[in-house]
Amino acid sequence: MEIKREESGKYQELVDTDQDVKLLSRVILYNDDWHTFDEVIEQLMKATRCSFEKAQGHAFEVHTKGQAMVFEGKMKDCLKVSSILEEIALRTKIVT
């Protein structure tokens, strides 16, 4: 592994030139008392393009545990999924 220093203004930054570190982000969906199972399932299928069965499993986990990780991927994809879930006022959080 080679590490080199790059100057950027006053700061020096160490850059790993051999390995591209890819951090995945996750979308957490929280339970609420306003949406039906059908609404949540439908929105999960729309947002994550998952099967009915997988969306149903996520909805049940959210209901029983209060929250569930419903998507994992690149930050830009998590932002898209989260925004689609929030179209119907579901509460989400993105974590890395």
Task: Tally the structural domains.
Answer: 1
Task: Output the CATH topology.
Answer: Ribosomal Protein L30, Chain: A
Oligomer: single chain
Largest β sheet strand count, sense and barrel closure: 3 strands, antiparallel
CATH superfamily: Ribosomal protein L7/L12, C-terminal domain/Adaptor protein ClpS
Question: How do the strands of the widest beta sheet line up side by side?
Answer: 4-3-5
The CATH class is: Alpha Beta
Q: Strand-and-helix sequence, N→C?
A: EEEHHEHE
Describe what you observe in this structure:
The chain has a single domain (22-95), classed as Ribosomal protein L7/L12, C-terminal domain/Adaptor protein ClpS (Ribosomal Protein L30, Chain: A). The chain has 96 residues and is of the alpha+beta class. The radius of gyration is 18 Å and the shape is globular. The strands form two sheets. The protein has a three-stranded antiparallel beta sheet. The two termini are 25 Å apart. Helices cover 40% and strands 30% of the residues. The longest helix is centred in the middle third of the chain and has 14 residues, at 52-65. The mean pLDDT is 87.
